[in-house]
Amino acid sequence: MDEGFFHIELKSPSEYDYINGRVKILETYLFSKEAIQRLVSLSFDELVNELLNSHYKEHMQGSKFIDVIKGISTFNNKTLLEMEKFVSPGFINSFFRSKEFFLKLKRLAIEGGAFDIADNEIKSLIKTTSNKDHTGIFSTAYKKLTENRDDILKVNLIIDIYYIQFLLLSALETKSDFIKGYYDIYASLNTELILRRFLNLIKQNIVDAIFFNNAIVMMKKIFPDSDFFKKIFAVKNFEDFEEFLRSEEMHYGVNEMFGSQPDIFVRKKLEDYLDNGKFITVGIEPVFIYISKLCFESELLKKILHAKNINFESQEILKVIGYNYE
Description:
Blueprint: H1 17-27, H2 33-41, H3 44-52, H4 65-84, H5 89-96, H6 98-111, H7 120-127, H8 137-147, H9 152-173, H10 177-203, H11 209-222, H12 227-232, H13 238-252, H14 256-260, H15 262-275, H16 285-309, H17 314-320
Helix pairs in contact: 1-16, 4-5, 4-16, 6-8, 6-9, 8-9, 9-10, 10-11, 10-15, 15-16
């Protein structure tokens, strides 16, 4: 693998002017929240027809379910390839392709003995121990994964923590306060979500309290200093965390969605943050905003298509995608 696969090369703000003008136009083609709600009300065939007349149309090879799903993915992949010409491949790889490498890392570690047949890209990442940038994380994570490969809960925890760390460090390399702010929200919400899940596992007697405590210790060692992490890392055990949640609910109120559909809650918070950047027209941020919105849209459309394909009712679909709270 090229050593610069995740290297984020920054340009002067004016060098992004052309692509920023273009993504501002492309952003107008994305489906609004109201349009998504309308799509949910359509039959499967009507929905497919809408997509065949949308920005995805050139990549649809037919009107069958699998054709439409593939068309959405193809459009996304081609968009990423196009955008990396104007920003840098490392920027696109770090924020929009890195998750697949962490999943490869996980598979490789838990299968054991599979290193020799792994693809060259992941092998190269595992061997990279450079402290110059964020790519050394893969080597560190792989070592910890192989040491704990028999404990799937710990494997999942390691992947989650190092992926969050990778995104936070990648965001720092962009020198963008907006992108750093986005991943601060991502990191804080997902860290709390991880701990909430472990708390539920303790209450179900699936894991011991010591597992929760060890997770906190691991997070403290890996995550950078921030106001949120200082607050949550004052927590020493699951009882402290329950008190943290109670004080949070007293201050902010109980959020039903975070309890019942946490992944959707996180997505909505991030979407709201992206909307705050709608007036940004210079620098690398407009490209980041457009691609992030496109990824959220494609994820939603695939969920709607899957639900329509198995004959879910519209109200059920709105709940699945979190639009019943609108």
